[in-house]
Write a structure and sequence with these properties.
This protein has helices at 9-17, 20-42, 47-63, 65-78, 89-102, 114-119, 121-127, 137-145, 161-172, 180-197, 223-229, 250-262, 297-302, 317-321, 323-328, 339-350, 367-371, 378-393, 396-409, 412-428, 433-436, 449-455, and strands at 82-86, 107-110, 131-134, 200-203, 207-209, 214-219, 233-239, 243-244, 269-273, 287-293. The chain is an alpha/beta fold. Helix 3 crosses helix 12 (250-262) and helix 16 (339-350) packs across helix 18. The termini are far apart. It binds iron/sulfur cluster (SF4). Iron/sulfur cluster binds at residues 152, 260, 312-318, 341, 371-374, 376.
Length: 456
């Protein structure tokens, strides 16, 4: 399986840059998403007001998360759901595997869920002897290819139609084609059969409403409807940050999310699930279990700067506009969360030592902040994380250079001397070799600002 490590981002990125297929697929997909997002946002005259409202709601939730979670749990349990708390990925997987094993489950259908990607749930279920079937088309493709997702909302964005056709021929035995209609109809026919056989359906959660105990899941393919309603047991897995206070808040988020994610005015399906079914003749599962995952989120919540990371709606818009993601794609990040938000979340989830290169995988151009529907200041977060890494990772030479620079900046005489020394040094030795290996360093002017100023 193509699982690269976050620790080798530079090497991963270099390999990705040499892959012409990958860069072609990324260019087409990210430009298309970007154009559609722009047009969809322009269709709402109050777009900026909505972003401001969404940001304020998320601020409110994250400042009182304990209270809103308590309210959500009380309301959901009153409607028949059973709620479980998981401190980390291992606990979440153990709860879910336990529930499935107790019911002697053999086939598990899943809808797209970044949270279960984060916990590597499929590996745990397979190790417990179950067949796991991803039912979102993109997830199904990468499951067949035995690859991790490379985009938050479009997991197979790195694959061309031709590559998907070859994969389906090899794995599903269909005649070679790159016709999208034929490919999707083959996937649909295979998946329908698995839905009918499934004992357990596992989904993610987009929003959890504290006021009513409702979980809300949005999608375009209808597979979430089937995953959450056909099997007898539905397990919904959510990060603790997904809670929102009121039903009315959805008005803001359901306008922002589909427009930011795929440039749609509205998702094709919106499922609202409040507890279990009331009567035996109703549609839906007999049991609903909701797993609330922490896995490092409380740590992010504790700091006023990193807290913002938890406002993310997982729309993927920041990936599509990021000049780094556009060139190297998602796998290079070595994390289920790639792109600008991945560079922020991954070091906080995995531990900064394991993903120390990611906060530097950005030009800090600010395009991510411009498109984020909840106004997360990603460049600020990246700088904050760089500040955490630098004292640990900065070389002795770097630290000495900055100490000398600080001394020089405090003394006019030393400052003048350093600018002369800098010009001389640039002539006799290469400066910042790593920095200049991929770009030009402008020559230092022959005269200092003071000299130019006094000549006038
Ligand atoms: S950080 Fe903002 S733009 Fe990026 S995925 Fe999250 S909500 Fe979307």
């Amino acid at each position: 399986m193509n699982h690269l490590s976050s620790e080798t981002f530079r090497e991963n990125a270099r390999a990705a840059l040499a892959d012409a297929h990958l860069r072609g697929a990324l260019k087409n997909a990210t430009s298309l998403f970007g154009e559609k997002r722009k047009a969809a946002a322009a269709s709402l005259p109050n777009w900026e007001d909505l972003r401001t409202q969404a940001s304020a709601i998320k601020d409110e939730v994250l400042s009182h998360l304990d209270g809103y979670l308590e309210e959500f749990v009380g309301k959901a349990e009153a409607r028949g759901a059973q709620v479980h708390w998981a401190r980390n990925a291992a606990e979440a997987n153990s709860i879910i595997c336990g529930l499935a094993t107790e019911r002697k489950a053999r086939v598990v259908v899943k809808s797209k869920s970044m949270t279960t990607e984060e916990t590597h749930l499929n590996d745990a279920l397979e190790a417990a002897g179950m067949q796991v079937v991803e039912t979102d088309l993109g997830e199904y493709i990468i499951q067949l290819a035995e690859e991790p997702p490379s985009h938050i909302i479009a997991p197979a964005i790195h694959k061309t139609r031709g590559q998907i056709g070859e994969l389906f021929t090899a794995e599903l035995g269909m005649p070679p084609t790159d016709d999208v209609a034929q490919l999707t109809s083959t996937a649909r026919a295979t998946l329908r059969d698995r839905f009918a056989a499934a004992d357990v359906g596992i989904s993610g959660v987009n929003f959890a409403i504290a006021e009513t105990g409702t979980i809300v899941i949005v999608e375009n393919e209808g597979n979430i409807r089937l995953t959450t309603s056909l099997p007898r047991l539905h397990i919904a897995v959510m990060g603790i940050e997904k809670v929102i206070p009121r039903f009315a808040d959805l008005d803001v988020f359901l306008k922002l999310l589909p427009r930011s994610a795929s440039g749609q005015r509205m998702s094709a399906y919106q499922s609202f699930i409040t507890g279990t079914k009331r009567r035996a003749t109703d549609e839906g599962p007999e049991e609903l279990h909701i797993v609330l995952l922490d896995n490092g989120r409380s740590r992010m919540l504790a700091h006023p700067v990193t807290r913002q990371s938890l406002a993310c709606l997982r729309c993927g818009a920041c990936l599509n506009v990021c000049p780094v993601y556009q060139q190297v794609g998602g796998h290079a990040y070595g994390s289920v969360y790639p792109g600008p938000i991945g560079a922020v979340i991954t070091p906080q989830l995995m531990g900064i030592e394991k993903a120390a290169q990611l906060p530097y995988a950005s030009s800090l151009c600010g395009a991510c902040r411009e498109v984020c529907p909840v106004k997360i200041d990603i460049p600020r977060l990246l700088l904050h994380l760089r500040g955490e890494i630098t004292p640990r990772k900065g070389s002795v030479a770097e630290r000495l250079a900055f100490k000398l620079w600080a001394r020089a900046m405090m003394s006019p005489a030393l400052y003048k001397l350093s600018s002369v020394a800098g010009r001389l040094l640039q002539r006799v030795m290469p400066i910042s070799k790593a920095w200049t290996s991929g770009r030009d360093l402008r020559p230092i002017e022959s005269k200092s600002f003071h000299q130019l100023w006094s000549n006038e």
